[in-house]
């Protein structure tokens, strides 16, 4: 793989973008940690209603942050979250036989969302959009166990505007019809301890949209270190119980000796 590095300065700040060309000479990978590259995950009304019914809440972790909410037709504020894009891979084609530029995948490494229900939680982190499979992937942490690069949502890609202006990628894309995969549904049902009545509607629920916008403007560098969900510590009562069991075991061995 050949690596080409280009440096540029703006507003007194320097940023470096690395372009990696694959051996097939038609794939281009762009590091967008220094560029205005963002995706916004906006919940649908149905998703908000389902979360309210299950007494759950969603919060941003890592690189993710709250985005401007939108007002639904019923007057509810629909939560949205910024998930900064850290890397994009595109294919370069030869019109009219293939598009000049088309997306292959994109990363939002370091971003995470926590879904909490009482003392239970599920964390989604390090998102990947795979255009070859029409899937959103993520590291899913449920019940203290993390399953990496797991299928989360299927999607329908619409409204694609993409092009290269010199070395700058400009892209606008909306992903809609975000539907749980079977794997994600199982993780959420178990991780949040959902009853059958609460879990069943999630099978056909459209969770909202993801809107992606990328341009050549600079931003403060985004940390592209993968987000790792914290493993919950054992509660004090459980630790005390283990300690007492250990003491009893030692005492029993001494009596037998």
List the defining traits of the structure above.
14-stranded antiparallel β-sheet; 17% helix; alpha+beta; 257 residues
Overall description:
- The chain is an alpha+beta fold.
- 17% of the residues lie in helices and 54% in strands.
- The chain contains four helices and 14 strands.
- The protein has helices at 45-53, 182-191, 196-199, 236-256, and strands spanning 2-10, 13-21, 27-31, 35-43, 57-62, 65-71, 77-84, 87-92, 101-117, 120-130, 135-142, 145-165, 168-180, 208-218.
- Strands 1, 2, 3, 4, 5, 6, 7, 8, 9, 10, 11, 12, 13 and 14 form a 14-stranded antiparallel β-sheet that branches.
- Strand 1 (2-10) and strand 2 form a beta hairpin.
- The protein is globular, with a radius of gyration of 22 Å.
- The model is unreliable at 1-25 and 237-251 (pLDDT under 50).
- Structural class call reads alpha+beta
Biggest pleated-sheet summary = 14 strands, antiparallel
Order of helices and strands: EEEEHEEEEEEEEEHHEH
Mean pLDDT: 84
């Amino acid at each position: 793989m050949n690596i080409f590095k280009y440096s540029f300065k703006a507003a007194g700040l320097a940023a470096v973008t690395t372009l990696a060309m694959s051996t097939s000479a038609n794939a281009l990978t762009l590091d967008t940690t220094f560029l205005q590259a963002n995706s916004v995950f906006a919940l649908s009304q149905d998703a908000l209603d389902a979360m309210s019914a299950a007494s759950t809440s969603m919060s941003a972790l890592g690189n993710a942050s709250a985005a401007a909410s939108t007002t639904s037709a019923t007057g509810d504020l629909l939560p949205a979250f910024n998930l900064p894009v850290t890397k994009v891979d595109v294919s370069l084609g030869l019109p009219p036989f293939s598009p000049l530029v088309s997306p292959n995948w994109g990363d939002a490494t370091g971003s995470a969302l926590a879904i909490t229900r009482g003392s239970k939680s599920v964390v989604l982190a390090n998102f990947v959009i795979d255009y070859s499979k029409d899937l959103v992937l993520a590291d899913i942490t449920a019940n203290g166990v993390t399953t990496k690069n797991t299928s989360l949502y299927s999607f329908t890609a619409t409204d694609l505007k993409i092009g290269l202006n010199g070395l700058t990628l400009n892209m606008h894309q909306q992903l809609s019809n975000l539907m749980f995969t079977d794997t994600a549904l199982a993780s959420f049902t178990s991780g949040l301890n959902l009853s059958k009545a609460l879990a069943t509607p999630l099978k056909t629920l459209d969770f909202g949209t993801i809107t992606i916008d990328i341009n050549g403007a600079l931003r403060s560098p985004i940390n592209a270190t993968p987000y790792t969900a914290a493993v919950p510590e054992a509660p004090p009562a459980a630790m005390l119980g283990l300690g007492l069991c250990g003491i009893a075991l030692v005492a029993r061995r001494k009596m037998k000796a």
